[in-house]
Amino acid sequence: MGIHNEGIPFIIVNSIIWIAAFAAVLKWCHHPWLRILLCLVCLFMFAMMIFFFRTPKRDVTRDPELIVAPADGEVVEVDKIFVDEYFGCECTRISIFLSVFNVHITWYPTGGEVVYSKYHPGEHVVAFLPKASEKNEHSSVVVRDEKGREEMFRQIAGIVARRIVCYAKEGDRCEQGSEAGFIKFGSRLTVLVPGDVEPMVEVGDKVVGSVTPLARFK
Question: Which of 117, 133, 139, 187 is catalytic?
Fold first, then answer.
């Protein structure tokens, strides 16, 4: 377990804030129980910042016939929808909701070449809601594998998340399970696949990013 590079600036700034708050409590708060409570709050907030930006070690699932979860979280949608962006056809949609307690790294669901990458400004409604996939700020990335099969994943901001970090650039070569980006705080990841695929998860399932298979190409 390590700390993600995206979190280092946040941790440094928050360290200064919470250390200053801790010192202020010790100096000016003279009620013993209130002092203990406030000090515990400072320590908890600092620990949560480190916990949020953790980077776990994973045994990555690598199988070209599988589409692997791009993030940790809970499956909130498994259905078919028409996708205007890039594909212009019906796609299988699998959406994952990430709470603030999940690891927020984004991993590539498949390997191959990045053929499309676009950032979309938008709203910041609750990421759990279905309309978040279209209305919220998000980035869309399409990967084409060696057999010409394509899948899109969308990093979607939520009511808390205010910054999407996407490393994917058109023309990049990527490996299944390698890091594709990071979303800071609560958010959503949606995978969209045209053609015939077999979903391997259901709504309510908990998935592990870079490990749990979401679907199988047919």
Answer: 187
